[in-house]
Structures are given as C-alpha cells and as structure tokens.
Design a protein that fits this description.
Length: 201
Amino acid sequence: MFPLGSVLFPGMVLPLHVFEPRYRALVRDVLAGDREFGVTLIERGHEVGGGDVRTDVGTIARVLETQELDDGRWVLVAVGRARLQVASWLPDDPYPRALVTELPEPASVDGAEDGLRAEVAGRLRTVLALRAELGEAAVPLTTELDEDPVTGSYQAAILAGATPLDAQRLLTAPSPADRFRLLLEVLDHAEDRLRFELGAG
C-alpha cells in the first residue's frame, strides 16, 4: 500500500518519485510480482515515518513505467485500475500493507446517468474556461466525457480539481449517478471560487 496526500481515481495517471527506503522496497516487490499496489488517502498525519490515519477505500494502481536512479531512488508512472476496499491494515513491515478486495462498480440503471453526465460536462467546460482565464493549465474545452457512466464519472472527477476530501467522497460514491450528483456540487463550488478570484484580480 502507498498512502498519499491525494486521491487516485481509476483511469488516472500517477507519477511517483520514490526515495524512502521502505517504499523503495515496496517498488522492488511490486515489480517482482503483478506490478500492482494500493493507493489510499492519508486523512490525517504525514507520509514520512508513519503514524498517519488512512482511508479504507482507495484505488489499485498498475505500474506502467519505471526507472531506478543511480542513488537507488525510483521514478515510476502508474495508472489507477479499479477501486479497492481495505478489509484490515497489517503492520507497516517493511512498508504499509493491507488485506484488500476489489470494490465493484454497480451496473447502470436504465441510463439514469445520461442526463447527469451531460449536465456535469457543461459545468466542467465552464470551470475549465474559468481556469484558462486565470492562466491555469487546463485541458481542452472540447474534452468529451466517455458515454460509459463509470468511465465518464471518473474522467470528470479527475478534471474537477476537487480538494482531497471531496475527491475521496467522489471515489467512494456508491454509483456513477451519485458521483455525477456530487460532481455538480463540487463544480458549483469551484465555479464560485474561480469567479471570485477573477473578480478580485
């Protein structure tokens, strides 16, 4: 397990610079195995030295690229594959470990998410346009959300720029429809903040 101060969504790319000895050991074991590890959000505490409080819902990450540097550090790129549920945390020996199960995504119900997806896509374009006005790096405004409700809801969650706690709420949403509804709330708050910043500037 790799607890972080940010949330990894399924489909999201995760670049990591690994320098702590315990996580160097984790990378070596992951590469010797199935190239997968778990990522959870640190709710309180710090990554260094343990003693943190971690969420019980996270994401399974698969390593795509790795490079070991001359001094033993690792640079790697992983991608979120699916949600996980922590059944129990094990001792951090030699690195954070847990017993986990893959958390399935519920099936779509009669296309109920379609209208929500369209509404989220419109709000997202507005937020991205406001970010561009502020000079923030943003994705093209023509970005389309995938028609699959699970994939589309995670695409929007990745682009929404939510705080870590809101991102965790999005990750743990019971269904894509619930995730879209929560995204509307998150994007409303983001739009209000961005318009305030534009007005203040």
